[in-house]
Amino acid sequence: MVARTGLYAVLAANAAVVAYFFGRAGFASNALIVLGRLTGLYGALLMVFQLLLVARLPWLDRRIGMDRLTSWHRRVGFGILWTLLAHAVFLTFGYAESSSLDPVNQLVDLAETVEGVLRAVVALGIILVVGAVSGRLARRRLSYETWHFIHLYTYVAVVLAFTHQVAAGTTFTSSSAARTYWYAVWGVALASVFVGRLALPLWRNWRHRLRVTAVVPESDNVVSVYMTGRDLDRLPARAGQFFLWRFLTRDRWWQANPFSLSAAPDGRTLRLTAKAAGDGSAALRHVKVGTRVFAEGPYGAFTAMHRIRPEALLIAGGVGVTPIRALLEELHGHAVVIYRVASDRDAVLYDELRELAHAKGAELHLVTGPVSPDKLAPGELLKLVPDITDRDVFLCGPPPMMNAVLGSLRELDVPKPQIHFERFSLAG
Fold first, then answer.
1. Which of 210, 281, 309, 376 is within CB 3.0–4.6 Å of 274 for a Cys-Cys bond?
2. 285: containing domain
């Protein structure tokens, strides 16, 4: 909560600074041009904020979580699209009012005669394409790899937009203070991306040098992969977090798959457990011992760091048990574990959970059966955990199950700060 509030405060403060420098630069006589310049500045500020959201900075990620950062990233992305589109439309029509040109020819004239405008037009075109493929309908039709490749062109748009602002931005050139401010915020954002997305992963992988030590089938469609490396006691990973894993084989080195740790890090080994839900996860069964691994992370705020109560309730559904099993290993204090599956044979890692629960004095409930009737409805949860409102609740599972359980927790008046979950569409 503190991190989120701080992030909002930083954005609001910068919005106020942008408005201040905009006012200091003076207003044009044409209202459309004034609106065009203002929307352009806030579009640039949203781009800076977007870079911070995608930088995967450990401090932010551990406190907010990648699922919430990703949700904000999507909203800010569409905010960028609409503000920059408004910037182009307002300026084009504003300048067309004071000339004899129609809006289309006015835009062509600006691109030909004003330095940096052509770069801005190209940047806007890229953002429109990225926005189109990020819509829900298009996103369902595209493979993740294709969508991700198109999305990378956003960085080209960012560079073009920045150089446009340097060349043509009246607020940017209005004073040395404004120029220093904009260079500073762009510099911080770009440096954050460089550190979080490139330098830190390269450094950690050079230092730890992960290799596969064992591949263990847990069931017909679930497999665990064990890894070791150097100085793993210095890797800042916690139970509940996940990595983006690349297994450096000839046919899979280019593909990164997100999987949670299924055992608490012990400073010597790491383990992931995955269900064969796609080509990447299905291929894990065939990874050979000794294969080098490139891991980005750890990511996620689904950790005991956010506990506020001495006792906990852990609720897992399906393969969402992997971070729950790791959390149970790390947690102190009394815990209740509820594991929801369709049938006993779907209860992956159940034997480990049972042994851990016995060793830690925890209660373990295996809930099986069809989806209807809801066996995790408010009344059913209250029977299993009468003191549920006095516990931290950690929840991980398929989205429909999570939505249903979150509804039950709301009906039971479990305080919101005690409910911890992440949408593991990436990391499940």
1. 281
2. 209-299
